[in-house]
UniProtKB/TrEMBL annotation:
InterPro entries (alphabetical): KR_dom (IPR057326), NAD(P)-bd_dom_sf (IPR036291), SDR_fam (IPR002347)
GO biological process: bile acid metabolic process
GO molecular function: oxidoreductase activity, acting on the CH-OH group of donors, NAD or NADP as acceptor
UniProt KW Oxidoreductase keyword: yes
Keyword Ribonucleoprotein on entry: no
UniProt superkingdom: Bacteria
Gene3D superfamilies per the UniProt record, alphabetical: NAD(P)-binding Rossmann-like Domain (3.40.50.720)
Domain Ketoreductase: 16-196
Family of this protein: Belongs to the short-chain dehydrogenases/reductases (SDR) family.
Keywords: Oxidoreductase
Protein name per its UniProtKB record: 2-deoxy-D-gluconate 3-dehydrogenase
Signal sequence, renumbered to the chain: none
Organism name: Paenibacillus rhizosphaerae
Length: 262
């Protein structure tokens, strides 16, 4: 039809290079594998060298993409800068950063020590800043990049059993917005994905506990916990060229729990 414009939407990650933190297992590993399946070469970081090297090797075999495992303490600037430099030296560039590394200590306010507070906040928040700063400088230099931060529904809702986790994730969302505003002019987008309970091999036993199942079923409009692929898909979207005009957003992957009414 005359005057009709054909629009091509590109979600292909072929030729892209991605870093995923906390990627030796669980959600991080699945995200790394999903990025590789979409065509990206991936660098995985985690504290335990043996685990992250094994994960990288298995992902490379499964997907045919190049995968690099790096032992890295994402709360330490020297370790972060070294890891990012290794990725640049190995792959020549950085297109995507997924800040997935995180932790939780299930203590209430009077049970939580100062050291435990610092550990949770450093792992969940400081790591996002350090990794974004290090990888973002390369992205800004190239005038292109995608950063995705894994936050949590606890950025919006309070948790009765964990005082430090929610505030640290709320700060991740605010940092997402701040960096999105600062770096949009350089072609770098920064977004967040906030999951509810997601079943992994690490938490399957806990989620299968009858009390936990009952709580999730009653609290979640969809009546179930999430699946790994339901987190990976939004991450892939934010990493793609198709999301080029989306920045500073926090997408809840929660079965409707953050909009639950009475």
């Amino acid at each position: 039809m005359e005057g009709y414009e054909v629009v091509n939407v590109n979600f292909d990650l072929n030729g892209k290079v991605a870093i995923v933190t906390g990627a030796s297992r669980g959600i991080g590993r699945t995200i790394a594998e999903g990025l590789a399946q979409a065509g990206a070469d991936v660098a995985l970081t985690a504290r335990t060298e043996a685990e992250v090297l094994a994960a990288a090797h298995e992902i490379s075999l499964a997907t045919g993409r190049r995968a690099l495992g790096i032992a890295c303490d994402v709360t330490d600037k020297r370790s972060v800068d070294s890891a990012v430099q290794q990725v640049v030296e190995r792959f020549g560039k950085i297109d995507i950063l997924v800040n997935n590394a995180g932790t939780n200590i299930r203590h209430s306010a009077f049970e939580l020590s100062e050291e435990e507070w610092d550990f949770v906040v450093d792992t969940n928040l400081k790591s996002v800043f350090l990794m974004s700063q290090a990888a973002g400088s390369h992205m800004i230099e190239r005038q292109s990049g995608r950063i995705v931060n894994i936050a949590s529904v606890a950025s919006e809702l309070t948790l009765s059993f964990s005082t430090a986790y929610g505030p640290s994730k709320a700060a991740v969302v605010q940092l997402t917005k701040q960096l999105a505003s600062e770096w949009a002019r350089y072609g770098v987008t920064v977004n967040a994905v906030s999951p509810w309970f997601i079943r992994t091999s690490l938490n399957a036993e806990a989620l299968d506990d009858p009390d936990n199942q009952k709580m999730i079923e009653q609290r979640t409009p969809m009546g179930r916990y999430g699946r790994l692929e339901e987190v990976v898909a939004p991450v892939l979207f934010f990493c793609s060229e198709g999301a080029g005009y989306v920045t500073g957003q926090n997408l809840f992957v929660d079965g409707g729990v953050t909009h639950y009414g009475v």
